[in-house]
Specification:
It is built from 12 helices and 10 strands. By secondary structure, it is of the alpha+beta class.
């Protein structure tokens, strides 16, 4: 999220662009403007090629966004909120709040995206046919519509490949889940299929690379690498959720909170508590009461030359403005939030009182202990 630009909201869903998106956008525009359109549609003015190329790229990514919005609308219609949609170098991704609770919901959510891409492809094919009938296939609008029709079909077909986390992999998971009734087993099988597809793409890319098609080969290798990592990560997340099912924050939080006085300087905080004690988040105490929290992130925002004169109270986050959690909150949900927002530690508050600190390190230690003991 820190490497994205906010574009606004569609159907109340936050739309973001990752900075890597600009790489693929420029590559597609350059490829269309310098090779594809001049090769297949000779005779245009030079500026026309680049205008059509730029327009085609923008519309294409609008189609990718429509694909993801379709997933998101079906997800929200079935009661699963969507946090945001992000466009990045490998396309787009909708971040849903949780996995679907029934295979039927998974199937509908997964199929919605490719279906929209197929519908868009048909619409552009109709536009192409109309322009050819009125003008000719060499008209810039016809060229744009033909390319967009083909690429949306390719997008739909590729996403239907039965390998997680592609839409086809989600359809496979929904089918296995529906047959076996075991979500974890279905995810393991779909993720295994996803890794198999990923390695095929990597080997195909290496073959292309060593036979002279360097750019295309490298691109297939990158896509395969991304799919392999995504499939592996998806299964680990499901396994982690399964391990942490029913576990609350209370079971993993640190109850003994090492506090500091509000008049402590940042220099004292750093050398006496953060470096020597290894603490990254500490309650700030004044007259026996917790008035705020100070973390290493707040310290980093203060210029180093001011550490000796700035107090902890001046740098802290007031307790009423912290993102606190409750002892009864799901440990997995809290862990997801901390990972997504890059938060190391959170205060645990009950009835307005600080009762502990939950950190990513304490959660990981808790999970490691469960694994070592063979406890699920």
């Amino acid at each position: 999220m820190r490497n994205t630009l906010n574009l606004g909201r569609i159907f109340n869903i936050q739309i973001r662009i990752d900075y890597t998106w600009f790489i693929i956008f420029l590559l597609i525009t350059w490829s269309l403007g310098s090779y594809y359109f001049p090769h297949y549609y000779p005779g245009w003015q030079s500026l026309t090629y680049w205008i059509v190329a730029l327009s085609t790229s923008l519309i294409f990514f609008t189609c990718v966004l429509a694909h993801e919005v379709a997933h998101s609308l079906v997800s929200e219609a079935h009661g699963t909120p969507v946090r945001d949609i992000t466009l990045f170098i490998f396309g787009g991704a909708a971040q849903i709040a949780s996995e679907p609770d029934k295979p039927g919901k998974e199937f509908l959510m997964a199929f919605a995206g490719p279906l929209v891409s197929i519908v868009i492809a048909i619409l552009f094919r109709l536009v192409f046919g109309f322009v050819v009938l009125v003008n000719s296939r060499f008209h810039p609008v016809a060229a744009l519509a033909y390319w967009l029709s083909r690429i949306n079909i390719i997008l739909a077909v590729f996403n239907l490949v039965p390998g997680f986390p592609l839409d086809g992999g989600r359809l496979l998971r929904a089918a296995v889940w529906g047959i076996t009734g075991n979500f974890k087993r279905a995810t393991r099988l779909a993720a295994g299929a996803g890794r198999a597809v990923a390695f095929l793409l990597i080997f195909f890319g290496m073959f292309m690379f060593f036979t002279g098609r360097f750019l295309n080969g490298l691109w297939f290798v990158f896509i395969g690498w991304f799919l392999n990592n995504a499939a592996e990560r998806s299964y680990r997340l499901v396994a982690l959720r399964d391990t942490m099912r029913g576990v609350t924050v209370r079971e993993a939080m640190v109850k003994e909170c090492h506090g500091v006085e509000g008049n402590t300087t940042l220099e004292q905080l750093i050398f006496e508590h953060i470096i020597r004690g290894g603490y990254r988040c500490l309650p700030v105490i004044e007259n026996g009461r917790v008035i705020g929290l100070v973390t290493i992130h707040q310290v980093k925002e203060i210029p180093r030359q001011s550490w000796s004169t700035t107090t902890v109270k001046e740098a802290m986050i007031p307790i009423d403005k912290t993102k606190a959690v409750k002892p009864t909150d799901s440990l997995f949900s809290v862990f997801e939030t901390m990972t997504r927002e890059d938060i190391s530690q959170l205060p645990v508050v009950q009835d307005g009182e600080l009762v502990g600190i939950i950190g990513r390190d304490s959660i990981l230690n808790f999970i490691r202990t469960l694994s070592e003991l063979g406890i699920e």
